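ok trying again, last paste got cut off:
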Amino acid sequence: MNLKEIESLIKFVQQSGVSEVSLEQKDFKITIKTTHGAAPVTIAAVPSPVSPFIQPQVSAVAPPAAAPPPAASEKPAAKDESRLVTIKSPMIGTFYRSSGPDKPVFVNVGDEIKSGKVLCIIEAMKLFNEIESEVSGKIVKVLVDNASPVEYDQPLFLVDPS
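nice, full thing came through this time. structure:
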């Protein structure tokens, strides 16, 4: 489809009074949207994908995704988390669960920990800093993936102190 054909299609859409027209051919897809017969809001042409199984969606205004309603089981968990202690990152760096790729992780979910136990390593400026627990308890959740960047004061672990 050339530019003249696209322009004539836009004029046709404006005159017809429809709000949206989509046209798809084997090598491109075009969507024209108008508001109250005014100038078109969106014109987009996209080359067709190489794989026949993937179809791109062209849209100027994507409706916001509706958040799924919270599950009933999440509410008791929120109450239980109020007693948990959050261990946060004392610095910016890269989070590591073990001292090396072939070494075991310092702590796993369910492990009992004592104050002063090494929980992880945070690499900052080529220095490997051992992060020790300030509380005793049981690891409930690891909040960061291994080898992920972390920010100052970012939660790393949830600990049940009871």
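cool. The first helix runs from residue 3 to 16. The chain has two domains: 3-47, 82-160.
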